[in-house]
């Protein structure tokens, strides 16, 4: 290596090298000298022929325009563009003949360089080789009537046999620097506005056709195909190389570019523009791998304002096709296609994870409806995602009419229903276990880009669901549900429900469900058929409780709540009317057990109405109608009932003896029949509050007996010491009572017994204030039951001595005295 360097050093220091170096230096100096002489000669030539050159340039330009071409000054640029002759034109203006009307100057430039071919110039010909425009404004204007200021350029003369061989002047290169370009099309309501930092173009001609590779760096101020809706790619920088070709036969410009930078993203673009007077069609196809928000922000404001409410986390493959007519008013046809794989989709109502689908946007959904927002649509196909952990599949969904968007499609879901717990901030339902399948055709409005009033048809099946309905503290286990949504009704094919001791099987329907659910839930009627192998009424009363108001802690950031799932569901449940046809094998109410129960129940605003009810209990039957409604911590009830031959002791035990302290069910036996019309209160646990009852009760006891009843035993010991008053049988025990809360008006209580006959009138109190008048014939009535007719028994009833006694309250104890009550 050192030896090689030594040889090189010796060669450079040799006399032969120095001789050749000197000659090469003289050659370079000679070339520079010739260049200077040539440029000086050109300068002298320009100064001597300046007037003629300018005249030829003006003539060349004016012969091709219909308007005014004005130059403030011009001069020759020494050495610039050598070997071409560079002429610099200062303060250039080009105006068409109608400039006084529209006031838009086609070209206004601080400087234009025109580089002329030297050999043509020496032959007295003007051949412009290159145009350089610096610090200029270009304004291309088209009026509503179709007139354009580019009409300043005269059409080319067709070649004839005489001039066919004569070469036509061509411009081989065009450079722009700091040029503001505006294309203002009032006819088509289009506005293109660019700040061109740099444009370099070298043109190759083939007869009347040409092609070029053009470098462009510009800022897009406006790319508006419809000025009403705004610009595409507004305020974005554009930079790249374009392959451009022009065909005279078709009068079409074709453009192709790859890796074109718009903003921070790269695009592959293929486009064409027809520039004939009768044909202004254009087409632009754009491909890119781009983030959703970046792509959305390249679109016009009317589209991006909507799309920016959505987002995709990862870049997506996008193809955009724009076709239209530059002379036609309105938007061009726009079709955007995207292929999304394993992405995250954010919508105003939530987040879709593991999201894959193919999407298409078009502003010409129905071809005959034009290119506009009402006819725009987003079509999603093969959609798969998880929404709040719930897996969803949508074969096709369409969001139609972006002015008033409506979404339609078919969704399939198969998931564990515990995943529903994350869907709502306000907790109404809490699912512990169970599985759901759904196949639903949906339609919903999109208001301010939020889902509004979704309407569904299809099937839903839920198996083995265990959940809590929190507003009413209801816990359900192993619930199965089958629902069928149609346009006419919601059919409840099957609900199997278990809550504590209650087992319920339900089917039914809700007519006009889709319309009433949102617009008039208070008019919704739910028709249920309920079969209960076993039901506890006291537990069931919890369903009627009004939902408790829950205090919520305001978070710092509040996400807009989709009211349609949680709040609307809660509103519907509380406002709708439920009509229930009930059949129960076994019903329990405290100690009362009933069988073969049938009734029609109507639930309205937390009020339960019972109609045409029948049941069997205590060896007899009861027919009833009634109503139960929550009121504070109690329930208000009203009832009409016909009791037929129930065992009176068992019946009294079932209702805790109605709060009567003076005797217990063990004191009485027989078969009770009665008619009652009663109102009153129940406790929060469903127990009767006896002193709240009001109404009328008529009753009769057959095969009755009174056993060890203390008040009668006291009377017997006082009046009939030799009769068996501890075991009294009745041939007649009937009465009519008015219930007034704590007190009962006994209008007529008739007792015909084996010991004595007794008539009772007055007031009986569950607390203080008892005042009863007793009419007691002293004759022995033991054999009255043997008399054949009622008239005979009545005729002998009050023979002999009759006692008049008063049973009254004395500091909480029952006392007896002589007298009649009406004389007190």
UniProtKB/TrEMBL annotation:
It comes from the Bacteria. Pfam families: AsmA. Keywords: Membrane, Transmembrane, Transmembrane helix. GO terms for biological process: regulation of protein targeting to membrane. InterPro entries: AsmA (IPR007844), AsmA-related (IPR052894). The keyword Transmembrane applies. The keyword Transmembrane applies. GO terms for cellular component: plasma membrane. The chain crosses the membrane at residues 24-46. Residues 21-254 form the AsmA domain. PANTHER family: DUF748 DOMAIN-CONTAINING PROTEIN. This is Uncharacterized protein involved in outer membrane biogenesis. It comes from Flavobacterium nitrogenifigens. The lineage of its organism: Bacteria, Pseudomonadati, Bacteroidota, Flavobacteriia, Flavobacteriales.
């Amino acid at each position: 290596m050192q030896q090689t360097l030594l040889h090189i050093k010796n060669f450079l220091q040799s006399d032969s090298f120095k001789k050749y170096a000197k000659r090469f230096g003289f050659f370079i100096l000679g070339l520079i000298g010739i260049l200077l002489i040539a440029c000086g000669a050109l300068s002298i030539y320009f100064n001597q022929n300046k007037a003629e050159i300018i005249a030829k340039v003006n003539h060349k330009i004016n012969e091709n325009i219909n308007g005014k071409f004005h130059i403030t000054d011009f001069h020759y640029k020494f050495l610039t563009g050598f070997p071409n002759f560079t002429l610099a034109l200062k303060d250039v203006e080009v105006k068409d003949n109608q400039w006084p009307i529209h006031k838009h100057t086609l070209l206004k430039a601080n400087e234009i360089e025109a580089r002329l071919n030297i050999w043509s110039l020496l032959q007295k010909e003007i051949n412009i080789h290159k145009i350089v425009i610096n610090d200029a404004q270009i304004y291309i204007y088209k009026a509503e009537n179709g007139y354009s200021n580019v009409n300043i350029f005269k059409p080319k003369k067709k070649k004839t046999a005489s001039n066919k061989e004569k070469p036509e002047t061509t411009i081989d290169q065009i450079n722009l620097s700091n040029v503001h370009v505006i294309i203002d099309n009032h006819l088509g309501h289009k506005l293109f506005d660019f700040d061109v930092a740099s444009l370099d173009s070298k043109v190759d001609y083939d007869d009347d056709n040409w092609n070029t590779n053009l470098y462009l760096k510009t800022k897009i101020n406006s790319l508006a195909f419809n000025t009403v809706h705004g610009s595409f790619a507004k305020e974005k920088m554009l930079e790249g190389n374009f392959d451009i070709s022009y065909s005279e036969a078709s009068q079409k410009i074709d453009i192709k570019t790859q890796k074109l930078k718009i903003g921070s993203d790269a695009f592959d673009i293929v486009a064409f523009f027809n520039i004939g007077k009768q044909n202004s069609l254009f087409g632009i196809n754009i491909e890119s791998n781009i983030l959703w928000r970046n792509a959305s922000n390249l679109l016009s404001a009317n589209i991006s304002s909507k799309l920016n409410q959505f987002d995709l986390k990862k870049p997506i493959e996008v193809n955009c096709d724009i076709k239209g007519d530059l002379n036609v008013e309105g938007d061009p046809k726009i079709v955007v296609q995207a292929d999304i794989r394993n992405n995250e989709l954010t919508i105003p109502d939530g987040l879709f994870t593991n999201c894959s689908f193919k999407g298409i946007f078009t502003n010409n959904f129905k071809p005959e409806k034009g290119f506009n927002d009402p006819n725009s649509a987003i079509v999603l196909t093969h959609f798969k995602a998880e929404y709040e952990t719930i897996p969803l599949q949508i074969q096709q969904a369409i969001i139609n009419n972006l002015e008033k968007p409506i979404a339609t499609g078919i969704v399939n879901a198969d998931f564990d229903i515990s995943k529903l717990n994350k869907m709502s901030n306000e907790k109404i339902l809490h699912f512990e276990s169970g599985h759901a399948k759904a196949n639903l055709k949906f339609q919903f409005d999109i208001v301010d880009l939020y889902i509004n009033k979704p309407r569904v048809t299809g099937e839903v099946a839920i198996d083995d669901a265990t959940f809590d309905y929190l507003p009413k503290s209801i816990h359900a286990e192993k619930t199965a549900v089958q629902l069928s949504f149609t346009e006419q009704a919601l059919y409840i094919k099957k609900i199997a429900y278990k809550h504590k001791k209650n087992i319920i099987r339900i089917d039914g329907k809700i007519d006009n469900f889709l319309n009433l659910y949102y617009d008039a839930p208070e008019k919704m009627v739910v028709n249920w058929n309920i079969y209960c192998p076993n039901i506890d009424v006291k537990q069931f009363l919890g369903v009627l409780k009004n939902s408790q108001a829950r205090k919520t802690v305001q978070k710092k950031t509040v996400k807009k709540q989709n009211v349609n799932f949680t709040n609307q569901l809660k509103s519907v449940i509380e406002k709708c009317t439920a009509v229930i046809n009930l059949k129960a094998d076994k019903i329990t109410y405290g100690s009362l057990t009933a069988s073969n129960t049938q009734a029609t129940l109507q639930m309205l605003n937390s009020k339960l109405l019972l109609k045409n009810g029948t049941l069997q209990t205590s060896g007899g039957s009861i027919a009833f109608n009634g109503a139960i409604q929550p009121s504070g911590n109690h329930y208000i009830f009203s009832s009409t009932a016909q009791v037929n031959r129930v065992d009176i002791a068992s019946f009294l035990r079932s209702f805790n003896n109605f709060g009567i302290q003076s005797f217990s069910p063990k004191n009485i036996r027989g078969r009770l029949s009665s008619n009652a019309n009663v109102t009153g209160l129940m406790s929060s646990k469903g127990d009767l509050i006896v002193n709240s009852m009001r109404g009328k009760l008529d009753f009769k006891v057959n095969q009755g007996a009174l056993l060890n009843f203390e008040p009668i035993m006291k009377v017997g010991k006082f009046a009939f010491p030799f009769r068996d008053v501890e075991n009294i049988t009745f041939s007649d025990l009937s009465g009519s009572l008015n219930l007034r809360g704590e007190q009962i008006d006994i209008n007529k209580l008739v007792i015909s017994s084996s010991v004595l006959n007794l008539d009772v009138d007055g007031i009986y109190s569950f607390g203080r204030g008892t005042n009863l008048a007793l009419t007691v014939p002293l004759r022995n009535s033991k054999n009255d039951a043997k008399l054949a007719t009622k008239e005979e028994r009545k005729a002998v009833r009050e023979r002999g001595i009759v006692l008049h006694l008063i049973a009254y309250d004395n500091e909480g104890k029952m006392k007896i005295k002589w007298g009649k009550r009406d004389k007190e």
